[in-house]
Amino acid sequence: MLSRLKTVLKNESGVSLLFVLGVLMMLLAAGAAVLAAAMGNVGINVRQERHNRAMLLTDSIHRNIQYSLSKTGVPTDEFESSLSGQIALLIYESSCDCAVPCACVDCICMSGVMEDIMLSVDIAEIAYDLPDEILLSFPYASVTITPFVPEMPELSIDERPRTALLSATMVVEFTLYVDAGTDGNRIITSRAVYMYSGGVLVWFPDSLGDLDLDERNFSEQGVWEMVSFEIIESEVY
To answer: Which three-class secondary structure state does DSSP give residue 93?
Structure first.
């Protein structure tokens, strides 16, 4: 075998053939390295695209909720059918157990039992990376009741309606699980904290001076203000 190799090397055409084969092997090695790098870049680009898509969806969901909560200064029917109005009514109904007009001058009903609200996400155009649910929780909620005061001319007291002043702290939170392929899943949790204040419900008595607690109106719709926002990212392999 060695003698044959020496014969080939002595032959100029044999040397040229070995040179060509050597160059070909170098090109194949370089091509394999470039291909491997390209495939790695494709993987990185796919993971980055999925991450960007999840961040865009997170931002969109929070912006929609913030817009829905800003639905104030509109007709009462429109306000009460909005997310802002629905939550304001739940604050009253869940926080206050005063089933009849209070006999005291003022009472404050503090909520420690207001249940969480679960919002589902259904976007027909998106069938991936959607959060299972959006959780609205209430670390604090209160209703301050001022009872109805009838008119008493002999005491120079004017009639005053029953009112309920509403306030609350609400946390909006949800989690996205982003498929990162062989790198596992990336978990993106976002949390926004809102303060609600200035909502006022009013009850007016009928011609006999009686109150119907189902007949109430918002004299002030209140304001929702985002006070903090954070995104927490982690990875699961």
So the answer is: helix
Structure tokens at 11: 């032959």
Cα→Cα distances 68→35, 58, 84, 89, Å: 49, 16, 6, 15
**CA dihedral over 178, 179, 181, 185, signed as positive or negative:** positive
Length of the chain: 237
| pTM for the structure as a whole | 0.71
Which residues is 9 bridged to in the sheet?
Answer: none
Give pLDDT tens digits for 82-124: 889 999 999 988 765 544 444 444 454 554 467 898 887 776 6
Cα torsion angle, 166, 147, 74, 93, sign: positive
How far apart (Å, rounded) are the C-alpha atoms in residues 72 and 61? 19
Specify whether the CB–CB gap between 141 and 111 falls below 8 A: yes
Whole-number Å distance between alpha carbons of 221 and 140: 19
- Looking only at the bridges linking them, the beta strands covering 107-110 and 134-146 are antiparallel
pLDDT tens per residue, range 24-71: 555 455 444 444 444 444 456 667 778 888 888 889 889 989 998 987
Can you tell me whether residue 31 is helix, strand or coil?
helix
If phi > 0 it is left, if psi is from -120 to 50 it is alpha, else beta; for residue 222 that is left
